[in-house]
Amino acid sequence: MKKSAIIVCLVAGGLVGGAAAAEVTITIDNMQAVGGFSFTPVWLAAHNGSFDGFDVGTVSSSDLIALAEGGDTGPISASFASSPAGMAGGVSTTLVQPDAAPVYSPGESASVVLNVGDASVNRYLSFASMIVPSNDLFIGNDDPTAYEMFDMAGNFNGPFEILVFGGDVWDNGSEVNDAAGGAAFSANGGMGAAENGVITRFFDDPNAGSYLLSFVGSNTADGGTIGATFDESTLLARIRVVPAPGMLAGLACGGLLLSRRRR
Questions:
Q1: For labelling alongside 52, which of 42, 75, 105, 124 has CA 20 to 30 A away?
Q2: Which residues of 55-85 are buried (b: 16+ CB within 10 A; e: fewer)?
């Protein structure tokens, strides 16, 4: 290989002048059947493992309340940016479903290319999204180091996918579960009542099933109708993480460099 070709590879891979800047493509899929529940735009973050968005059994933060009760990712994004993880170079984004905003209806998906910066630092992925319609149900990882995208040297650990089942749904504990009592993204109306509880696993509530059934036949804010519920084993969402095209180019160049050294 000529020296000039090696230089081109270094530039294409983002390797000149320090640690590699890695890019991943993240795809969100609503895996439910038509008539199932939806979820709001998904908050995503790549960080050093220090940003803990929530802990089960504790009172929810105001940032998470905004997300779990109304799908608003602005507050948690702001908190992340000012957190030690954000100050260390962590990045976050909100992935909106462009065809039927503001929610991901069953069968819909969207993708984003996320530049994580220094992959040896921003190794971990976090996510959060509200289940709709509901009062304050959400999905997300309570362990900030549960999903390790890169190892300590910045090598990609994927491709991989995260499967989110009904048993992974959380109850934020901030608003009473009542389909006619202020459930967001629902046409049922009513006013929400403060619950003043803590974050729990939704299906630990013996009334979880009946709460979901109370939405069947109701209209949703995006013009749909709820015709089916979910249980603990229902696959709700899939999050796929693969190298972005630019990262693949860098990996390919790395292979060429390795070949050059072997010669």
A1: 105
A2: eeeeebbebbbbbbbebbbeebbebbeebeb
Contacts of 88 (CB under 8 A, 6+ apart): 47, 48, 50, 121, 122
Specify whether the CB–CB gap between 34 and 47 falls below 8 A: no
128-169 pLDDT, tens digit each: 999 999 999 999 999 999 999 999 999 999 899 999 999 999
Look up residue 182 and give its amino acid: G
CATH top-level class for 3-262?
Answer: mainly beta
Q: How many CB atoms lie within 10 A of CB 193?
A: 13
The pLDDT tens digits for 83-114 are 999 999 999 999 998 876 678 999 999 999 99
Instruction: Give the C-alpha separation, 172 to 70, whole Å.
Output: 12
SS3 state at 63: helix
